Amino acid sequence: MAARIRQAGARPDRTPRGRPGRTALPGWTGRAHPVAPPHHQTATPPHRHTAMPTRPSRRSARSRLRPGPGLGKAGGDPPPAVAESGARERGGGAVKWTDMTDDERAATRGYLEDEMARLGRLAGIAPGRLPGFTPCDGAYPFVEVGADGELRYLAYERGRKVLERVTHDPEDVLYWAFQDATFEAAAVWARSRPQDGEPFRVTLWRRQFALLHTLRPAWAHRRRADLIASFRDPDDIRLVPGLPPGT
């Protein structure tokens, strides 16, 4: 049976069937049961999600999107179309997001594609390991830019939706994409560099925090907080390593 890995902690001693050298990824709830892709599939898509989410994750709506830490001059601010798209209207106390124009949707997608490519190079992650914008099956995530201004991070398995995260902030989409991609990269790194006296998952988390910190320091903090919140056992919480120095 293929090894089963959870971000919350498993020890992957083997890789999934049909995918040598590749670590199975968990679903966003942290309790996934990876299934090997069909043997006839020759492409190298990004990570898989096979856990059914309990409910979409929504962050608070924002009337203007603000670049997260680390953008600065290297990444540049989101283009005006991205910053202004999905501007909300208030009527009767309710918040309504206006529709995006085709140009605004194209600008949002372009910004996400450019940032994924740039950050992927910084972290040493191949483009094929990051989500695309074309719907696909096999539990491989992709991004949808909705006409209503919503950005959706989705995955389907045999036609059934197994992952859905929704936001209006491109920074959330980037975080989700690199949370998954760095987990996979860190698992490969940790497997090839076992640390004496340290559990595999601790080595993995330490490496993932370091990778996320190189991209956005705030992402390392966010990932560590998410990881701690996913545990109930105090012994598991105590295993979560600290962040790299200077964070």
| Rg from Cα | 18 Å
Largest sheet: 4 strands, mixed
Based on CA inertia axes, which overall geometry fits?
globular
**Poorly predicted tracts of residues:** 1-45, 50-74, 83-95
- Please report which band the strand proportion falls in: under 5%, 5-15%, 15-25%, 25-35%, 35-45% or over 45%: 5-15%
The beta-strand count equals 6
Mean pLDDT value? 73
Terminal-residue CA separation: 40 Å
Q: What is the ordering of alpha helices and beta strands?
A: EHHEEHEEEHHHH
Can you give the helix content as a percent range? 25-40%
Biggest sheet strand line-up: 1-6-5-4
Strand-pairing-aware structural class: alpha+beta
Compute the number of helices.
7
Written account of the structure:
- By secondary structure, the protein is of the alpha+beta class.
- It contains seven helices and six strands, in the order βααββαβββαααα.
- It has a four-stranded mixed β-sheet.
- The longest helix is centred in the last third of the chain and has 23 residues.
- The termini are far apart.
Write the layout of secondary structure elements.
Elements: E1 57-58, H1 72-75, H2 80-84, E2 88-91, E3 94-97, H3 102-123, E4 142-145, E5 151-157, E6 160-167, H4 170-192, H5 200-215, H6 217-229, H7 234-239
Parallel strand pairs: 1-6
Antiparallel strand pairs: 2-3, 4-5, 5-6
Helix pairs in contact: 3-4, 4-5, 5-6
Considering the chains and any ligands shown, give keywords for the structure.
disordered N terminus, globular, 247 residues, alpha+beta
Describe what is shown at a glance.
This protein has seven helices and six strands; from the N terminus they run βααββαβββαααα.
